[in-house]
């Protein structure tokens, strides 16, 4: 995907989020750091343009909730969770860049539930590559991209110093 394809996918997803929820009432976006946080902000900006109303947008660090923490070498890098609103009673759309096994989303759900009790939690991802290990599916998908286990999906965003693009690459061991 190039920059225009990413933008089109986010625009479509913003409309789908509003249609499925009958508008932006009691809606908040929470992006999983790092790529998901940037995408959540972009979705929030698009929803604000459509609805003429800013919605709450935050970012979530899931590092300590990961189930592979013991397998990682070295100390985990913690980033700040920035959710400056009460999640209780809100329709939260959790945003991530790539959905693969579902383990990142599972960790994010645990982290989010520690902050309160949302009315519901939905999932939006830019790319769904398949290969689920947990029974998790996205409510909003920018692009379904079937992949082989030997491939990796690499997202690059302007906010992180690169061009906006999604590339399919050979997996690094």
Please render the helix and strand layout as text.
Blueprint (H helix, E strand, L loop, with lengths): L2 H18 L6 E6 L2 H17 L5 E4 L30 E9 L3 H11 L6 E9 L11 E5 L6 E6 L8 E6 L3
Parallel strand pairs: 1-2, 1-3, 3-4, 4-5
Antiparallel strand pairs: 6-7
Helix pairs in contact: 1-2
Summarize the structure.
With 173 residues, the chain is an alpha/beta fold. It has helices spanning 3-20, 35-51, 103-113; strands at residues 27-32, 57-60, 91-99, 120-128, 140-144, 151-156, 165-170. The two termini are 24 Å apart.
Shape: globular
> Per DSSP, what share of the residues sits in E-state strands of 2 or more residues?
25-35%
Structural class: alpha/beta
Q: List how many beta strands DSSP finds.
A: 7
Give, in spatial order, the strands making up the sheet with the most strands. 2-1-3-4-5
Low-confidence runs of at least 5 consecutive residues: none
Whole-angstrom Rg: 16 Å
Mean model confidence by pLDDT = 93
Task: Work out the helix count.
Answer: 3
* Biggest sheet character: 5 strands, parallel
The oligomeric state is single chain
User: What distance lies between the first and last C-alpha atoms, to the nearest angstrom?
Assistant: 24 Å
Helical residue percent band: 25-40%
Order of helices and strands: HEHEEHEEEE
């Amino acid at each position: 995907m190039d920059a225009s394809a990413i933008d089109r996918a986010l625009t479509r997803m913003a409309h789908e989020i509003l249609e499925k929820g009958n508008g932006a009432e009691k809606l908040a976006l929470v992006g999983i750091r790092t790529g998901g946080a940037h995408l959540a902000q972009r979705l929030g900006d698009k929803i604000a343009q459509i609805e003429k109303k800013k919605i709450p947008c935050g970012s979530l660090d899931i590092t300590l909730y990961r189930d592979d923490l013991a397998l990682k070498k070295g100390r985990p890098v913690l980033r700040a969770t920035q959710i400056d609103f009460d999640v209780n009673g809100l329709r939260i759309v959790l945003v991530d860049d790539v959905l693969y096994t579902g383990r990142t989303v599972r960790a994010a759900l645990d982290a989010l539930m520690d902050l309160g009790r949302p009315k519901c939690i939905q999932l939006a991802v830019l790319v769904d590559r398949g290969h689920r290990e947990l029974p998790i599916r996205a409510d909003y998908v920018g692009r379904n991209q079937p992949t082989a286990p030997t491939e990796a999906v690499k997202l690059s965003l302007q906010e992180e110093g690169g061009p906006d693009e999604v590339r399919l690459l050979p997996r690094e061991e």
